[in-house]
Amino acid sequence: MKAKTLVLGMIATALPTFSMAGNDLDMVVGTYTGTGSEGLYSFSFNQTTGVAALRSTLEVKNPSYLAFARDGRHLYAVSENNDATATLNSIAFDPVTGNMSFMNSQLTHGKDPCYVATDGKVALTANYSGGSLSVFPVLRNGTLGKMTKQFAGYKGGPDRTRQNVPHIHCVRFAPDGFVLATDFSADQILTFRYDKAKGTLSPYGIATHVKRGSGPRHLVFSPDGRHAYLMSELSGYITVFDYAKGELKATQTILADDAHARGGADIHVSPDGRFVYASTRLKAEGITLFRVEAGGKLVRIGKCRTGSHPRSFTITPNGKYLLVACRDADKIQVFSRDKSTGQLRDTRQDIQLPRPVCIQFCPAS
Fold first, then answer.
1. Which domains does the chain have, with CATH numbers?
2. Residues facing 30 on adjacent strands
3. Side-chain half-sphere CA neighbours of 290 within 13 A
4. Residue 128 and residue 118: Cα distance in Å, rounded?
5. Which residues contact 342 (CB under 8 A, 6 or more apart)?
6. Which of 101, 136, 199, 353 shows a CA-CA span of 20 to 30 A to 142?
7. Successive 10-residue mean pLDDT values, the chain, 365 residues
8. Positive or negative: CA dihedral 23, 310, 329, 353
C-alpha cells in the first residue's frame, strides 16, 4: 500500500478558499477501486462554508467502509474483497497534515467485509458474503491483532436470491455494554454481551425480529441512547425501537423507499436528535427526511433527490451540512441543512472522486 500526498487544493467549488479557525474538519473517504480510484482520500472540510480541500491519498484495495479510533490518530478500513484476501487494515492518520500510512492488516476470514466499528479496545467487522462478524484486538500502538473470535449469521428470509445465504451487514456498539449486528438474511438483530476489560464478545440472543423479507441493513442510535432506528434494504422501511439492555422493542415502521426499489441503504440521526435521514437507491434515488416526535417516532417531511447510488452519507458535527457519497456518479454531494426544519439544499459544491462509498470525520483529538 502506497501513500501519496497531494497539493492542498479546492475540489469542485466556486466559493472562496478561506477557512475559519476551528471549523476545518479532517475527513476521510473510502472508495471502490479498480476504476481509477486510489482507495482512501483525506480531505479538510470546512463546516462553516462547505468547502472541501484534498490533502492526501493512500492506496488500499476496496476500502468501502472505515472507522476512526477515538484518538483520531488511527483508522480502520476494510478491504471488501470477495475472496480469502478480504482484510481489515490499520492506518495511521496525522491530523496536522492529513497524511495516512499503512500499519498492518489482518484477514477477516469472511468475504466482503462491508462495515467496521471500534471502541479502541477491539475492532469488529461485518462480513457480508461471509455471513459473519469478526473480532480483532486493537493493540497499544493502534495495530490489529489476529482475529480472536467469529460469529456466524443465519438465513431463512423468503427472498431466494438475496437471503439464500447468511449476510451480516452492520455491527454497532450499543450505549450500555452490548453489541448489535444486523442479520440480513434472517430478518433479525443479533445481540452480544461485550466485556470491554477483556475485549470479548459472547452471544446474548436476538434483540428483535423484523418482518420477513425486510433485509435489515444499517442501525443507528438516538443521541440519548433510548431509541434505535433500523433501515431495511429490501422492504425500504425504517423501524423505530425503544432500546435497553441489549433488547429492542419496535414502536413504529415507516416507509423510506417509496419507489419500492429494494435498495434501502444508510441511516443517520442529526446531532441534535430532532431529525432522521435515510438513503435509498436503484430508483428515485435520494435522501428521505423525517422529523422525530415524542417517544422517538418519526413523521416523514420530504425527499431530496441525489446523484446515482447514494450508498452512504454523513452529517457534520455542527449539523450544518449533509454529505452524500454517490457511488455511480463519482462524487460526494454537499447539502446544507436547515437546523429548524431539517430540509436539505444542494450547495453545488460537489467533491469529485471515483466511486465514493463511505465518509467519516475524524474525532477531535
1. 3-16+23-361 (2.130.10.10)
2. 40, 358
3. 28
4. 18
5. 270, 274, 275, 289, 290, 291, 301, 302
6. 353
7. 39 28 87 95 97 98 97 97 98 96 98 98 98 98 98 97 98 97 98 96 97 98 98 98 98 97 98 98 97 98 98 97 98 98 98 98 85
8. positive
